[in-house]
Amino acid sequence: MNSSAIVLFSGGQDSTTCLAWALKNYERVETLGFDYGQRHDIELTTRLPLREKIIQCNPDWVDRLGPDHLLDLSLISSISETAMTADIDIVMQKSGLPNTFVPGRNILFMTVAAALAYRRGIDVLIGGMCETDFSGYPDCRDDSMKALQVALNLGMNTRINLATPLMWLDKSETWQLAFDIGGSALIELIRTDTHTCYLGERGRRFDWGYGCGTCPACVLRANGYAKFMERMLD
Ligand code: ZN
User: How far is the CA of 135 from the centre of ligand 1 (A)?
Assistant: First the structure.
């Protein structure tokens, strides 16, 4: 069993799966969230109840879950106007990236997380970055994370490991990973309590959870769930 880790935990499907993965693999797990002027604060309000509920999926996890940290990164909204932080429509840009892309966001998140880890004496950071389904986001790439790990360790004289357990999974495999770790209780928790929808919609319940059902994040989550269920029923 590994010692301790910090999970970048937003309250979405991916970071909740990462939190379960961390609770399975590390003796002590702390969570970190960022307040950066998201379009909707649903993400921020789901985080703490999710932490309380996820430890009920496995009695071993109760003692492993350490404190939560919430850091203010509102500077992101003052330097970039994107569909994630401002009330504008989600469209594709000329660069081939959707305007939900917040330039440098994951780089900033990991850098701040590494500074926190340094202060807490923790040498593993866990993030839900994924190259498979979300290849449009260059700061989710495996190479981006590996390069950042080198830069951070050189710059702080540390041996911090950036772990990205979802990097090569598609969304259906992310559902599968959650099932393998926490069984149907964890799947139910993710369906009911995690939030993915870009529009912050929670009025409508689908079999894969709450959302608008049409934004890119909802479509990805819905298709992944359908494929996961197909395999389960095979
Ligand atoms: Zn949506």
Answer: 19
Q: What is the mean pLDDT of each run of 10 residues along the chain (234 residues)?
A: 91 96 97 83 84 96 97 82 63 68 85 97 96 75 95 97 96 97 97 87 90 90 96 89
Architecture of the domain made up of 2-195: 3-Layer(aba) Sandwich (3.40)
Query: How many A from CA of 11 to the centre of ligand 1?
Result: 15
**In the chain, where are the structural domains located?**
2-195
- Ligand 1 centre and the CA of 215: distance in Å? 4
Instruction: Give the per-residue SS3 of the chain.
Output: CEEEEEEECCCCHHHHHHHHHHHHHEEEEEEEEEECCCCCCHHHHHHHHHHHHHHHHCHHHCCCEEEEEEEECCHHHHHCCCCCCCCCCCCECCCCCECCCCCCHHHHHHHHHHHHHHHHCCCEEECCCCCCCCCCCHHHCHHHHHHHHHHHHHHHCCCCEEECCCCCCCHHHHHHHHHHHHHHHHHHHHHHHCCCCCCCCCCCEECCEECCCCCHHHHHHHHHHHHHHHHHHC
CA of 212 to the centre of ligand 1 (A): 4
Å from CA of 9 to ligand 1 middle: 19
